[in-house]
Target: Major facilitator superfamily-domain-containing protein
Amino acid sequence: MAKSAALPVELEKMATVPLSDSDTIPANPAENAAAGDNEPQYPTGVKFWTVMASVTVVAFLMMLDTSIISTAVPRITDEFHSLEDVGWYASAYQLASAALQPLTGKIYTKFTLKWSFLAFFALFELGSTICGAAVSSTMLIVGRAVAGMGASGLMNGGLTIIASAVPLDKRPSVTGSMMGISQLGIVCGPLIGGAFTSYSTWRWCFYINLPVGGLVAVGLCFAHIPDQIKKSSPLLVLRNLHHELDLIGFVLFAPAAIQLLLALQYGGSDYAWNSATVIGLLCGAGATFAVWLFWNWRRGEDALIPLSTMKRRVVWSTSVTQWLLMSTLYCSTYFIPIYFQAVRDATPILSGVYMLSSIVSQLLFAIASGFLVERTGYIIPYTIFAGVLAAVSSGLTSTWSPTTPTGKWVGYMILGGSGRGAGMQMPMLALQAGLQQAELAVAIALLMFFQMLGTAVMLVISNIIFLETLRSQLAALVPDVNIDDIIKAGATGFRKVVSADDLPGVVLAYSNSVDRVFWLITGLGGLSVFTALFMGWVDIRKKKAPAAGSEQA
Model:
């Protein structure tokens, strides 16, 4: 029902639109008539809906996988005694996705969309299987990394498929609808995860992907997904794979991203920030990234991510804005359940129910903002609105305490959900409106890289802030307790290892620690307002895709 509401009526009448000689899509009917009659056609009717339904369900499963674990984290830490690994449950997934993002753009450019998409989806399902069968925290982290590798090509591939299956003037509404529906996975994840954790086992948070994914894979196998860009034979690409995909560039890029995240993960927890390990990782990341930039410059337009693409204003501004807005969502989704379960002593399912106010408001504003963009044509106002609400709601959330009235925390979550729903798809819409079709695969990969790596870094930083604050708060409020024992007991298990006299102090320490995380989230929301101003004040109802490289920073 959400899908039908989100897609405008015009799509029912969508006609075949030819491509121009430059593989770009004419922006209006007059140009369509002049484009010629011998170009590839777009799918319509049942074929169109089959492709869109398959891509949307896959995107939903991927988004669900990023948040469904959040309400299960306290139980997982209790079972594996692994509170200090909390950041890795999200970061392993995000890091693997980020490291592979640039490569996925090249893969979709060189190989057929359909089978490339199915290959990434199979890898995602394998990771879910490993997570569900995990017997240790380490195995769970490995499974999350494998799932992240598969997920690296799903959203990028889905958006690239939409660009090949939908004309430019209809694409913003379809893209917004797909992303709006897929966001349900993010906001419903805590509720579904809480239900599995409370009434069955947290392992079903991962197993749920298998039966649904199997049905979707069968549908995709029989779906027709057009490739509007002429591609070489797969055998020819494989014979010269290192050149076609710029594997040397990938080998340089991936370690830089991995070293950066490892430094952030280890710093302040396993090693001191001034330790040789952390400093070495940071220096290694910087040096490797510098070498990668030099290699990119040498490769020119054949590079993993051409510098000419990175310099486009619409590319870097939308990428940074997407990173900031998605970071507010992911950090909130992971730490609000910790507040409810550790501070308010809520069960996983109840903490998911508590988040319904955020879920409903986010869904409503995601749908409403899509219709408003269709009517007004402008994207930036809704992006600014999203950033302002994210900052305000996060600032208010940072005032939560063990005794915050229900009305206040419900209201604050409604504000946050409204902002996130209004803005999450806007940077992607701006990117699609500002580029040619031939440029989209690599540009979308860059945007998704910023989102994946950026949110991974922010989750690690959030976890560092949380743990460091928790240690200092415990030392100040309950100086006689064993801090390491409390942390190892987990976010819900600590109630079993502290006395009744010390319990209020430990609960307050957890509350204050979550509050500090929302200081960071407030800053991210505010910064997104500034970066959104550079995405381009254009009316997408009239905008024609610019020539490649015409818009520089």
Remarks:
- The chain has two domains: 39-227+235-245+304-532, 246-303.
- Residues 1-38 have pLDDT under 50 and may be disordered.
- The two ends are 41 Å apart (CA to CA).
- The chain has 25 helices and no strands.
